[in-house]
Amino acid sequence: MISAPADVAAAKAAFPGWAATPRAERARLLHAIADGVERRVEELAQVETADNGALLRSHRRGVMPRVAHNFRFFADWLLTLGHEDFETRGHTNQVSWDPAGPCVLITPWNAPLMLATWKVAPALAAGNTVVLKPAEWSPLTASLLADIAAGAGLPDGVLNVVQGLGGEAGAALVSHPDVRRISFTGSVPTARHIAGAAAANLTPVSLELGGKSPLLVFADADLDLAVDLAVEQYDNAGQVCLAATRLLVESSVAEEFTRRFAARAAELVQGDPREEATDLGPTIHRRQLDKIDGFVRRALDAGARAVVGGGPDTARGDLYYRPTLLADVAQDSEIVQEEVFGPVLTLQTFDTEDEAVELANDTRFGLAATLATGDRERAERVTARLAAGTVWVNCFFVRDLRAPFGGSRHSGIGREGGTWSFDFYCDVKNTVTAPKGWRDHG
Ligand SMILES: NC(=O)C1=CN([C@@H]2O[C@H](COP(=O)(O)OP(=O)(O)OC[C@H]3O[C@@H](n4cnc5c(N)ncnc54)[C@H](O)[C@@H]3O)[C@@H](O)[C@H]2O)C=CC1
Ligand SMILES: O=C(O)/C=C/C=C(\O)C(=O)O
């Protein structure tokens, strides 16, 4: 490991050469990295599971192939970015997408390589050099990615990986004056530190933060589908920022919904994340489990009722938390307002569409929302009123890199995906040329 400033210096030194590399060659190298990822899917999947405890089958069949796709997608999207020309009184405006410089990318532990490569791929495609600092709890696949990139022929200094603690290595990186972009995915408190450091240097910053997203279940919904969507929120032991952790269910179907939910939750297999049959693995570390349990204990003390779960599964060791559903929770309570980042959902009921929207929007977050309804017009009405970067209707976690991804309010600043990523990672330039601007044209 080299120190953070040395990595920024390496990225700065490599920048002119990489920025001048033709787009087609940059795209070719990104595809070569994708090839390298595809050749090592099994190894990457095993290492990621060993590191963060998320399910091996998801890493193997979902996450790592998507990591390769991240490189291919942004390589191809780069080639579609046009030079948009338009005229002003005979003058030509030509808009171009210029590389910005060294970028610092700081990422969390819950989906390490997936979230890192959403940033690495467009930053490199745009012609920037990168310093990536993965979370200290899940450092390994980022280092493997650096090996893969070197093997693919990426020039030295173009992709640098710094390992270290957030408050040390991370803080040194984000306060460095030579950095031209900072992209961060992680928690709100860390985002405040990073935004402060970025402000000191006026470095543009993109923030993908936490959530407390609602799942609204209307009485006209397919109730089995609604229950499936609700149970899906326990994925990755609930350590997913997008998770719809607040179940808001129309009163007339709440009892039946709860009965079916409890039955489905009881079928979930909790255990070793390397086993194919496992649905729910461990939490990342003991401190996270204690944090989750603290939220649940305080909620129970305040009068909440555990419909499902309600504590750790100590028979499995000290990292497993039982999938939990808490009812009788007040809208202004901590358990409804704060991100738990564990397998803990709350259940509230509503009687009208207005009330549903009011409850859904009544947190400081705005990352995502999911609706279960059989009425298209209702879906359109409600969606238009929700504060959320992504709304899923009768589905969940359907993702497309062409679409914008990000949150409003305390869930973040900016969007990733497609042209939104290039908007952030490029210095967009407009060149205006006079109609008879050239000497030889007289
Ligand atoms: N909106 C989104 O796309 C996502 C958001 N998240 C959010 O991430 C959080 C969980 O991840 P954690 O790793 O616990 O978050 P965290 O904020 O503790 O750490 C994230 C990263 O920031 C680094 N860091 C910590 N202090 C720093 C500092 N002062 N300066 C620079 N870097 C620093 C850490 O080393 C790590 O690499 C949750 O709040 C979750 O909602 C997670 C995944 C996706
Ligand atoms: O895989 C995706 O498209 C989104 C991942 C987001 C998370 O991991 C998260 O929400 O925590």
From TrEMBL:
Aldehyde dehydrogenase domain segment(s): 8-430
PROSITE patterns in the record: ALDEHYDE_DEHYDR_CYS, ALDEHYDE_DEHYDR_GLU
InterPro entries on file: Ald_DH/histidinol_DH, Ald_DH_C, Ald_DH_CS_CYS, Ald_DH_CS_GLU, Ald_DH_N, Aldehyde_DH_dom
Matching Gene3D superfamilies: Aldehyde Dehydrogenase, Chain A, domain 1 (3.40.605.10), Aldehyde Dehydrogenase, Chain A, domain 2 (3.40.309.10)
Positions in coiled-coil regions: none
The keyword Oxidoreductase belongs to this UniProt entry's keyword annotation: yes
Top-level taxon: Bacteria
Listed Pfam families: Aldedh
Keywords, alphabetical: Oxidoreductase
Catalytic residues (UniProt): E208
Family membership noted in the UniProt record: Belongs to the aldehyde dehydrogenase family.
Record PANTHER family: ALDEHYDE DEHYDROGENASE-RELATED
Protein name from the UniProt record: 5-carboxymethyl-2-hydroxymuconate semialdehyde dehydrogenase
